[in-house]
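Bumping my old thread because nobody answered last time. Still need a sequence for this structure:
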């Protein structure tokens, strides 16, 4: 499906059919101020566990968001894998689900992600497509890439409810 034009400054939103993606990830309850440290630590732990299992990431890192509560954000961070990952300490196998999703790509620093997520929510609502659970971000270009944050690329993926 063709992207839907958003207002100036908002990323275009596209409705796509996702295939199931196997992942290796660390999941934890994280305070907002601790998200950068969690991401760094989790991705390092997953990368080490993959190496020790003789595996390599099958794509860029991701973070998935499950729920927000008074104790913080229930989230996972890791990498996609080409084959099932054997559980290794705090690194667990998992999946990013198949099915319809609203997707967009945010270009720029992470401070702009909230506005990009809001634009995605608004466009999905305008299309009459109810959002499902547990959205995620895919970090195509970001910290550690050696490029200016103005050109960082973050994929936003929000599964759509099938009853919508």
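Sorry it took so long. Here it is:
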């Amino acid at each position: 499906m063709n992207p839907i034009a958003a207002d100036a400054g908002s990323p275009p939103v596209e409705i796509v059919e996702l295939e199931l993606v196997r992942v290796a990830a660390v999941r934890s309850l994280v305070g907002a101020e601790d998200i950068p440290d969690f991401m760094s630590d989790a991705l390092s732990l997953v990368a080490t566990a993959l190496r020790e299992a003789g595996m390599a990431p099958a794509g860029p890192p991701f973070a998935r968001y499950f729920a927000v509560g008074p104790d913080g954000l229930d989230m996972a961070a890791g990498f996609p894998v080409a084959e099932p990952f054997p559980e290794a300490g705090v690194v667990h196998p998992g999946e990013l689900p198949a099915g319809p999703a609203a997707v967009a790509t945010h270009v720029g620093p992470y401070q702009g992600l909230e506005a990009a997520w809001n634009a995605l929510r608004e466009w999905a609502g305008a299309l009459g497509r109810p959002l499902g659970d547990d959205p995620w971000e895919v970090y195509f270009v970001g910290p550690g890439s050696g490029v200016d944050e103005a050109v960082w690329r973050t994929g936003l993926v929000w599964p759509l409810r099938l009853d919508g």
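Residues 1-8 have pLDDT under 50 and may be disordered. Let me know if any region looks off to you.
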